[in-house]
Every structure is written in structure tokens, then in C-alpha cells.
Amino acid sequence: MTPTRSNRSKRSNHTTKGVTSEEQEDGAAPAAVAEATSARPLAGRVALVTGASRGIGAATAKALGAEGASVAVNYVHSKGPAEEVAAEIERLGGTATVLQADISDEGQCTTLVNDTIAALGRVDILVNNAGITEDGWFRKMDRLAFDRVINTNLGAVFTLMKAVMPNMETRGWGRIVNMSSFVGQTGNLTQANYAAAKAGMLGLTKVVALEYATKGITVNAVAPGFIETDMVTIIAPKIQEMLLAKIPMGRWGKPEEIAKAVVFLVRDGSYITGACLNVNGGVVTAY
Hints:
There is one protein chain. This protein has helices at residues 8-17, 21-25, 30-39, 55-66, 79-91, 106-120, 143-171, 183-186, 192-211, 230-233, 237-245, 255-268, and strands spanning 5-6, 46-49, 70-75, 96-100, 125-128, 174-179, 217-224, 276-279. α4 packs across α12 (255-268), α6 (106-120) runs parallel beside α7 (143-171) and α7 (143-171) packs parallel to α9 (192-211). It is of the alpha/beta class. It has a single domain (5-279), classed as NAD(P)-binding Rossmann-like Domain (Rossmann fold), CATH 3.40.50.720. The chain has an eight-stranded mixed β-sheet with strand order 1-4-3-2-5-6-7-8, sandwiched between helices. β3, α5 and β4 form a beta-alpha-beta unit. The termini are far apart. The protein is built from twelve helices and eight strands.
């Protein structure tokens, strides 16, 4: 599993324009630091976003890139769309690399982190976004269907966080955002496996946040509501009408709105850890 796209020449240019945390500590010119941090607050940081070829993941990768982060764009099947995301980041002056990995496989999770470090030098930000659904009534759901969703949506989060922690601890700075769902808070018909994984993600987020709170690493979750992605647009029109009626704001959320929440936690959330930020149009108002 090797990078299929790596803007190495731009990576070199990026480090001359941006200011890394080490450069700031070593006494880089104050004016240069101020310029870099005000225009591109995440300059010098490296983000790994799983499932970043489309939807919320793509929007998040682009948003982090726009803030100055170098971004590893992970995909499992959609190579073309992932390369388009990377190209958009680079078009805006950022740096991106595209990495293929099936995160349901523990070994590929570890390799994905190692490949990110090899391509971009480090991992400061991890966004666990990738996930799958395999819906069915509980009485008909078999253990394989349950395990596939748990392994991808929860098991990979555990493995990836374990893999990035040494890199973050070394520098005393890290930001992890786990993409949960309102379904993990409320449950949903035919989604026993998905709800269990997303609820488990919330518990895992809280524990890891507590254990790393003194190490400069924050761990938070975002719980989207109904977002205008492929998973929603393929739903039959009558069902869409029923779902919209349940949303107090009366509309689907946009992937970019979720991305803004992630950027907030990464860029401005230095005193926020173990939290779940609901972005759902009012579907869930407390948890």
C-alpha cells in the first residue's frame, strides 16, 4: 500500500512558506509566525482523514487543507475521486497525498499511518471518518453483518488512534476527531450494528480523551444528523419526505457544515476534549 499521488515538490515548498511547531519553538521570526498562523492556522500540521474520497470526508480533507494542513486523503475503492480531492487541496496551495487502505483490516490501518508519516513526515491530526452501513432487522441480522460494521466503524478507530499516539506524544500535540452519528445516541430501526458502533465510538472517545488529557492531545467526536451525501440521496423520495419532517430545521445538512465543526475542534478546541459536538439540525438536542 503506497501513495498513489504525492506532491513532494509542493511539500518542500509548503515547508518554506509554512511554519512548523518546531520552528516556532526554535525562535522563527515573530512576523513570519504571525503571518503563517493568521492566514493558515494549521500550517506545518499533517492530517490523516479516512474515507476522504467523497461526502463528509472529502469536505473535511479540503477544509483542513484550506487551513494550511498537509492532508493524507485515504480511500478504499474510489481512487479517482480521492485524487480529485487531493488536486483541489493542491490547487488552493496546499499539499496532499492519496493513500489506499481498507481500514477494516488491522494491518492496513497501521500501514496507513506509517505511509502517511513516510509521505508527509508526521501525523498531528487524525479524523476517523470512514464507515459503512449494512442495515437489516435485528432478528434477521447475522453475526458476520454485525462484525463487518463493528470492525470498520469502531475497530478501525481503536487501531488508528493506537497507531498515531506515539507520533503525537513525541511532539506533545495532537487532535483526534471521531465521526460518530446521532444514530449512536438515539438508535434507528434496522441499524443495530451501525448504532452499536457509533455509540461505542462515543464511549471510546471519552476514555482516550481522559487518558491523554495531560499530553497535549485532544480527542473529540462529531455526531452528524441527516447529511446530504450518497447515503441520503439514494433514499426513495417518499422516505426522504418522512425523514425531512423529523428535522426541526427542515433540511439536510451539508458535508461542509460537518467539516467546519471538525476544523473548529482541531483549530480552536485546545480546551475541549472528550466532547461530542452535535451537528444535526435539531434532531438530537442533548446527550
